Amino acid sequence: MRILGIDPGYAILGWGVLDMEGNRFKVVAYDSILTDKDTPMPARLQELYEGLSEIIEKYKPDTASIEELYFNNNAKTAIMVGEARGVAVLACANGGLEISEYTPLQIKQALVGYGRADKKQVQQMVKTILNLEKVPKPDDTADALAAAICHGHSSGGSGGKRELRIRKGI
Amino acid sequence: MRILGIDPGYAILGWGVLDMEGNRFKVVAYDSILTDKDTPMPARLQELYEGLSEIIEKYKPDTASIEELYFNNNAKTAIMVGEARGVAVLACANGGLEISEYTPLQIKQALVGYGRADKKQVQQMVKTILNLEKVPKPDDTADALAAAICHGHSSGGSGGKRELRIRKGI
């Protein structure tokens, strides 16, 4: 199973592609799509959509794992992040991928074992689980890989111990 | 100038196409795209994107006018509306349209003359300005036409009296 993990955002969209072979992960590729703050939002959304569509075309993942977003402060920002997330989901759906969504809590539980883990612990676990030399940068890329690992764990591999509620098709 | 007005939403996306001829509007078409609450969100986003792309293909508007969204309560809903808005903006950008954005305040000022007008007053003005027999339903369609009228007024037609700040390219 080839998993595309996505951490959606309009300035930085982190992504990572992993192969799950039995109980282990193999890193295929990871990076982030950056958009310029001086570019009008419609053009930024186009760049995100086209960039992600190219990644899907190139790596042909079977499934996408996307972090669910929560906000409790700035609704204006929530709308903009929602716009970026919408075109990311559209790119995955138009690419024929199954789409699963996980909350930050679920991702932390899957990687570190408890939901109150901090961001750095999660990132260290990404490095360890994927046997990388260092934590991927920017944080968004590490978070995208974390979402991919979370999906891999919860959809088979580790067998029951890390059962998570998966919300297929968001 | 042919204007596509859009009131974005994930359950109902209102749209309306108007021609501006000198100082007057001619109604071309208006309706709404509905998505089913039992359909997974990625498929709903696909339906919105494809539906709006077909409308753009069919009516070939020059420019799109989209209501800017404000929320002060539910961030979860804001994300979902943002997702729908993102794919709507993407459909317009991919269709080669210029995109302008107006706040609800700007739209009310453009139609009724003052920003505290209520929803019903705006809808009555849509009916009057466009010489319709009744107020278009659902509200989202009337709001989309209001956004289109707002853009028409502010980009020429009525000449200065209703000058609005236009934020081109969002």
The best one-word shape of chain A is globular
Strand adjacency order, main sheet of chain A: 3-2-1-4-5-6
How is the quaternary structure best described? homodimer
- Residue runs with pLDDT of under 50 for 5 or more positions of chain A: 157-170
What is the succession of H and E elements of chain A? EEEHEHEHHHE
How would you describe this protein?
Chain A has 170 residues and is an alpha/beta fold. Chain A has a single domain, classed as 2-Layer Sandwich (Nucleotidyltransferase, domain 5), CATH 3.30.420.10. Chain A is 44% helix and 23% strand. The first copy, chain A, has a six-stranded mixed beta sheet with strand order 3-2-1-4-5-6. In chain A, helix 3 crosses helix 5 and helix 4 packs across helix 5. The longest helix of chain A has 20 residues. Chain A is globular. The C terminus of chain A is likely disordered. Chains A and B meet through helix 1 and helix 2 of A and helix 1 and helix 2 of B.
What labels describe this entry?
6 strands, globular, homodimer, six-stranded mixed beta sheet, 44% helix, alpha/beta, Nucleotidyltransferase, domain 5, 170 residues
In short:
The structure is a homodimer of 170-residue chains. Chain A has 170 residues and is an alpha/beta fold.
Q: SSE layout and pairings?
A:
The structure is a homodimer of 170-residue chains.
Chain A: E1 2-7, E2 12-21, E3 24-34, H1 41-59, E4 63-67, H2 75-94, E5 98-102, H3 104-112, H4 119-129, H5 139-154, E6 167-168
Parallel strand pairs in A: 1-4, 4-5
Antiparallel strand pairs in A: 1-2, 2-3, 5-6
Helix pairs in contact in A: 1-2, 3-4, 3-5, 4-5
